[in-house]
């Protein structure tokens, strides 16, 4: 089953870094997932996240306010 990954952030350098890390992990490990960037502040607020970037996997907030390592992202997706 395909995972739904959302990266919450307004497009700041940290948010872009997180997007890069997640995309690398998904591609390198051939994970079946869709990656969606959520930059609209109103949408971000619906997740009740105060610090970005945030990583949401299948509607569960897994990381917020920091950039996870590739290993951490892989663990979260497995």
Automatic annotation (TrEMBL):
Active site: 12, 15
UniProt key word Disulfide bond: yes
Residue span(s) of domain Thioredoxin-like fold: 5-77
Entry keyword set: Disulfide bond, Redox-active center
Gene3D superfamilies documented for this protein: Glutaredoxin
Family annotation (InterPro entries): Thioredoxin-like_fold, Thioredoxin-like_sf, THIRX-like_proc
SUPFAM superfamilies the record matches: Thioredoxin-like
NCBIfam families: redox_disulf_2
Protein name: Small redox-active disulfide protein 2
Organism: Maribacter polysiphoniae
């Amino acid at each position: 089953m395909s995972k739904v990954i959302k990266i919450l952030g307004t497009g700041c350098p940290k948010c872009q870094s997180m997007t890069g890390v997640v995309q690398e992990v998904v591609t390198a490990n051939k994970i079946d997932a869709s990656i969606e960037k959520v930059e609209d502040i109103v949408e971000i607020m619906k997740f009740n996240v105060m610090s970005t970037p945030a990583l949401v996997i299948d509607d569960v907030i897994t990381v917020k306010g920091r950039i996870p390592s590739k290993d951490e992202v892989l663990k979260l997706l497995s």
